[in-house]
Design a protein that fits this description.
276 residues, alpha+beta, Umud Fragment, subunit A, four-stranded antiparallel sheet, 3 helices, 32% strand
Length: 276
């Protein structure tokens, strides 16, 4: 028996038009949801970058052999507490440091250049507040004592300009037994003989490991002793490294440019307690 043409369908036969309409969003609603998700992602990223870790990449060879051009690393933002420079654009007006923890000699630190705080530098903590530091004939003196160094060997290394330079690698032992590698081109360069520096309170003397190719605290008009307030964080670990010919996002170049032996390498110097 056929159904009359003017008979209404039963509830089971009714298309669920109303429910389908409720399950979709208008273009305005979709835009609102996208904006909300984007804002949450930005806030999470800002929180991680400000309070936990911030990524940096190495553009120069001033920290060779420890850090190479093309290295990407994480900086621990809470290692020394927080200052206004811990936050993007210095937007949080903190005086001094909040929850401050003292840096250790030998730490690798990212800091704001005292002469231009829009620029980030990365160097090693050599002198602590109250120390005296001086270079004499290429040798480092801290508090009047010559710092021990042990020759590892001579190497032909490409400079930032691409020129091949013969450098000598040493293991340097700072006061307290902290050991790390350095490069020296000679003991008679422009920064191999300096005045005696006395480090003021709440300041640190910073030097690059590539001693004859580093603008650091020895250059007083540009860097000098660095205020603790300018510290951004401690460089803890590499997370990526290329040979300098590929950017992080150039994935198609990774197979032949990634330095696989440097991935996730720790950056802490050797300390006496590490051998216990």
């Amino acid at each position: 028996m056929t159904q009359p043409e003017n008979q209404m369908p039963t509830n089971d036969e009714m298309p669920d038009v109303k429910q389908d309409h409720q399950g979709t969003m208008t273009a305005k609603e979709e835009a609102g949801e996208f904006f909300k998700s984007a804002m949450i992602a930005i806030l999470v990223a800002l929180f991680i970058r400000s309070f936990l870790w911030e990524p940096f990449n190495i553009p120069s060879g001033s920290m060779k052999p420890t850090l190479l051009v093309g290295d990407y690393l994480f900086v621990s933002k809470g290692a020394y507490g927080y200052s206004r420079y811990s936050f993007p654009f210095g937007i949080i007006p903190i005086e001094g440091r909040m929850n401050a923890r003292d840096p250790q000699r030998g730490d690798i630190v990212v800091f704001k250049l005292p002469s231009n705080t829009s620029i980030d530098y990365i160097k090693r903590v050599i002198g602590l507040p109250g120390d005296t530091v001086q270079m004499k004939s290429g040798r480092l003196y801290i508090n009047g004592e010559m710092v021990k160094r042990e020759k590892i060997g001579d190497f032909d290394i490409a400079s930032d300009s691409g020129e091949i330079v013969k450098l000598t690698q040493y293991t340097e032992t700072l006061p307290g037994g902290v050991k790390h590698a350095i490069y020296e081109e000679s003991d008679y360069g422009p920064l191999d003989n300096t005045p005696l520096y006395t480090i003021p309170e709440k300041h640190f003397f910073m030097m690059g490991d590539n001693r004859d190719h580093s603008q650091d605290s020895r250059v007083t008009h540009a860097v000098g002793a660095v205020p603790f307030e300018n510290f951004v964080g401690r460089a803890d670990r590499l997370f990526f490294s290329t040979n300098g010919t590929a950017a992080l996002m150039e994935v198609w170049k990774w197979p032949w440019t990634v330095r696989y032996d440097r991935l996730f390498k720790g950056l802490a110097p050797e300390r006496p307690q590490d051998n216990n």
